[in-house]
Structure to design on (304 residues):
């Protein structure tokens, strides 16, 4: 091709001196946006002030940038990627290497979009159960990949791991109720904490994680009343519900679920935000707005 001819690019456009912005760059309108980076301190302030915290999963650069631009406070690189990205039947087979790859993708997307959301990454099954040393080694890799907080599942023995990580400067998000990594031991995907003894155990585990320094805690598929009680008992930890009613400090959904894209049966606690939106950007914005104003979740439809 002669040097004076413009070079074709993706989408049929041409590359010239007037096209300084690369394709797949910032979301429209992202430049000059004024939102301070979301930090663990800001999350604590939001909880204290009663402002709902909007959390959404993302697994690649483009969707991460779009979620950030919509105003999502925290983006979670969940091991749910095993099911929605890799086609697995559970999260158990997700490797630390996969989590590192997707965390890097999301982190880079936020950099490209000049994003400000707090990035949380899951410690996958088998990456922290063996020992505290294994847990911190895995957590350090995720933080170096771009995560600003790591999430692990379960109570009891995990309290010591959480304290160990927090003491070494690694922010931690806990996860109680239905814990997908150990769903086989819980009898399948069923509501947890319905029986009095089980509810008391979850409350005790939540209090222990709070005392250990967990900054956030996902409460999944537990009765709304129990989740609200736990949320009120927390000294500093911000509870994030998924199928746990509207009494938590915030909400999280798997991105594919809230867009109505699911390889299996849609869970009761999910709302398809794309159904009434013009596009994905509008669906993300509608989700953030509904979380913030408390209209989602509706306990009559999305909770137990």
């Amino acid at each position: 091709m002669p040097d004076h001819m413009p070079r074709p690019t993706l989408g049929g456009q041409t590359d010239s001196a007037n096209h300084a912005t690369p394709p797949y760059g910032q979301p429209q309108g992202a430049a000059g946006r004024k939102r301070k980076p979301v930090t663990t301190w800001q999350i604590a302030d939001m909880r204290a002030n009663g402002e709902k915290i909007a959390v959404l999963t993302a697994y690649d650069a483009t969707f991460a940038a779009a979620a950030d631009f919509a105003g999502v406070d925290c983006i979670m690189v969940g091991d749910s990627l095993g099911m929605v990205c890799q086609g697995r039947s559970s999260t158990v087979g997700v490797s630390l290497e996969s989590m590192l790859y997707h965390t890097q993708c999301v982190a880079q997307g936020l950099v490209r979009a000049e994003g400000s959301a707090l990035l949380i990454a899951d410690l996958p099954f088998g990456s922290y159960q063996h020992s505290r040393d294994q847990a911190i080694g895995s957590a350090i890799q995720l933080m170096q990949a771009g995560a600003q907080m790591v999430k692990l599942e379960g109570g009891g023995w995990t309290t010591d791991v959480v304290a160990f990580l927090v003491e070494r400067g690694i922010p931690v998000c806990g996860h109680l109720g239905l814990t997908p990594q150990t769903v086989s031991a819980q009898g399948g995907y069923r509501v947890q904490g319905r029986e009095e003894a089980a509810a008391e155990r979850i409350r005790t585990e939540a209090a222990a994680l709070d005392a250990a320094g967990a900054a956030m805690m996902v409460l999944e598929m537990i009765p709304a009343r129990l989740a609200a009680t736990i949320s009120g008992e927390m000294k500093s930890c911000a509870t994030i519900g998924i199928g746990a009613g509207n009494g938590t400090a915030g909400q999280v959904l798997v991105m594919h679920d809230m867009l109505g894209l699911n390889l299996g049966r849609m869970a009761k606690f999910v709302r398809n935000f794309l159904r009434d939106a013009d596009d994905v950007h509008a669906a993300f914005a509608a989700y953030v707005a509904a979380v913030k104003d408390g209209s989602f979740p509706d306990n009559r439809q999305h909770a137990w």
